[in-house]
Amino acid sequence: MTVRVQRTFEFDADPERVWSFIADPRKRAEAISVVEDFEVDPDDGRKATWHIRLPIPLIDSTVAVETEDVTREPPRYVKFVGRSRAMRVTGEHTVEASDGGCRLRNLFVVDGRLPGVERFFKRNLNRELDNLEAALRAELELPA
Question: Could you tell me the pTM of the whole model?
């Protein structure tokens, strides 16, 4: 089973500022609650390793998820892919100018490789997108 969630956020902000946040692997990782720690490759700002903790029985420690921005079309689109023994995750973010601000279209797809991973994300992926939106609003100094 694959978990797929799409959400669009509206911001009264310059699209360039939204792009600056969403294209930064560090800021994306910080917004996700199950990411306990991460490292961004200093030689390639497109790669990061997330150390995630999932509250499921088969995983009793953190899991390293190797992420990479596979497509970047500044200042409009970024797609990343993360791979680990527990799952494969794909995230796509599209920034679009709108009247007085912009919208950010988000698509996340999680394919679990261990029992319980997809169930966890089916229940919690919307909350993780809430976290992403809250982090972006804080960065932009916009009301929640």
Answer: 0.92
